[in-house]
C-alpha cells in the first residue's frame, strides 16, 4: 500500500505524527493508500518555512511571478491526462469529467498569467495642492487553503494560483480523501519555477486545520467544503483576526416554465443532477416545474433518460456516465435519505438503491434516483444529499417556484428554463442566489468573472477567482504624498530678512 507524503520546501516529506487515514479506490472499495495527518508541529514547521520563502517571493516583480503561472499552465496542459487519471483514481469520477476538473482550474491559472494588470494600484494626481494619492496592493503573507474532496484539481488551483500570483505563500490542506492531485500540482509548480517553500501541501484533518486557524502567521483562510465546517472555520478564523472566505454546501433549484423546451430541460437536468454522481456544489438537486402539465411532461422525459444512465468505474472509459460516490459512509447516507423520502411520502419514480455492478460489488456505487411530489418538509428536500438523487417539487405558479428557491437556506446556484426573456430577467433580478443560469443548468462563471454563493453557501467577503481573488489575497495601502516646492524654483542666494 502506498504511503503518501506532504510536500514541503519543494520536496516530498513523510508524515511524522504517526497518524494516517486510508485513501480508497471508490470503485472497488479497496484501500489504495494511506495519507499522513499532520500534527501541530508539522504545521508550525511548514508555516515557518513558508514565511521565510514569502519575503523573497513578494519582492519578485509581478511579471516574473506571472511567468511562473505561464509555465505552470503549459505544464498542466502537458500533464492533463496524468492529472485527470489521479483525480479519477481517488475520486471515482469519469475521465472526461476529471479533465473538466483540471480544465476549470487551469482557466484560473490563465487569468493569473495576466495578474500584474490586476495588481496595479490606483493613483490620484493633484488630490490637493501638490498632493498625490496612490494605493498599492500588497500580499498578505502566508495564507491557508483548505479544500474539499469533490474537485481535487479545480479548487486547489482556484486557491493557489491567485494567492501565489499576488505574492503570498500558501499552505494548502487538500481533502484527505483525494490528496494526490494537489501534490502533483505542487511538483508542477516547482518545475515551473516557483521557489521552494512558497507552496506547501500539508495533508491532515481537523488537527491540522485548527492549527492553521490558530496560527498567528496565517493571515487569511480560503475554505471550500460543507456548510457546517465552512461556518465553523469562518468563525474561528475571524475570531483570530484573520481574513476568511468560506464557501459551503448547496441545494440548487432549477425552475422549468411551461414554455420551456422540455427535451432540453430534461437533458440539462440529467447532466446537472447526476453528473459526477451528484457530487458537485453546483449540481441541480431540485427540479421545480411550474404547472401540473409541465411536471408530467418533465417526468415523462426524465424517466427514460435516467434509466439509460450508465454507472461504473472510470476505467470503463466512455461507457460510463458517472462513477461511485466517495466513501461507504456516503453511499449509506444517500441510500438512507432515499429511504427517508419513501417513508415521508415522496413518490420514488426511479429507484437507485440496491445498485450492484458485477465485479465491483464492494464499490461505493449508488444508482440514480428520481423523486416526484417532494415537499419542503421532507429530509430529501432539506438535506444536501450530494449524491445521484433528483427531487421534483411541483409549483403552481412562477411566483411559488421563485419563493421556494428564495426560501431555501442555501444560495449557491440556480437555473430557469424558459422561452420568455421577461420571465428570465425577472428571475435573474429577484432571486437571492449567487450564480444564475438562464437555459443553462450549471452556471459556473468563467474564470475572469467570480464564483460564489449567497446565504448559507458562503461566509465572509468576496468571491473566488477573478478580480475578487486579487482583492482577497492582497491588502490595500494608500499613500498620500506632498512634495514641497524645492530645487526646481532655483537656489536662494540672497540673505533673506525675516518678515
Ligand atoms: P468537508 O466540509 O467535509 O471537508 C472540507 C475540508 O474541511 C477538508 O479539507 C476536510 O479535511 C476539512 N474538514 C472536515 N471536517 C473538519 C472539521 N471538523 N474541522 C476542520 N476541518 C475539517 O467537505 P467535503 O465532503 O470534502 O466536500 C463536499 C462539500 O463541499 C459539499 O457540501 C459541497 O457542496 C461543498 N462544496 C462547495 C463548493 C463551493 O464553492 N461552494 C465547491 C465544492 C464543494
Q: Strand order, main sheet: write it out.
A: 15-16-17-14-13-19-20
User: Could you say which small molecules are bound to this protein?
Assistant: nicotinamide-adenine-dinucleotide
Low-confidence stretches: none
Structural class: alpha/beta
- From the 3D structure, determine the CATH topology of the largest domain: Aldehyde Dehydrogenase, Chain A, domain 1
Give the tally of β-strands. 23
With helices defined by DSSP (H or I, 4 residues minimum), what is the helix count? 16
Describe the structure.
The chain has 499 residues and is α/β, with parallel strands linked by helices. It has two domains: 2-248 and 457-480, Aldehyde Dehydrogenase, Chain A, domain 1; 252-438, Aldehyde Dehydrogenase, Chain A, domain 2. Helices cover 39% and strands 22% of the residues. The chain contains 16 helices and 23 strands. It has helices spanning 40-59, 62-78, 80-91, 95-113, 115-119, 154-165, 180-191, 206-214, 227-239, 262-274, 292-307, 328-343, 379-382, 398-407, 421-430, 466-472, and strands spanning 2-3, 6-8, 11-13, 20-25, 30-36, 122-128, 131-139, 142-146, 169-173, 199-201, 218-224, 243-247, 252-256, 284-289, 347-350, 369-372, 389-392, 410-411, 413-417, 435-438, 454-455, 458-460, 474-482. Strands 15-16-17-14-13-19-20 form a seven-stranded mixed beta sheet, with helices on both faces. α2 packs antiparallel against α4 (95-113). Nicotinamide-adenine-dinucleotide binds at residues 146-151, 173, 175-176, 205-206, 209, 224-226, 229, 247-250, 281, 384, 386, 412, 453, 457.
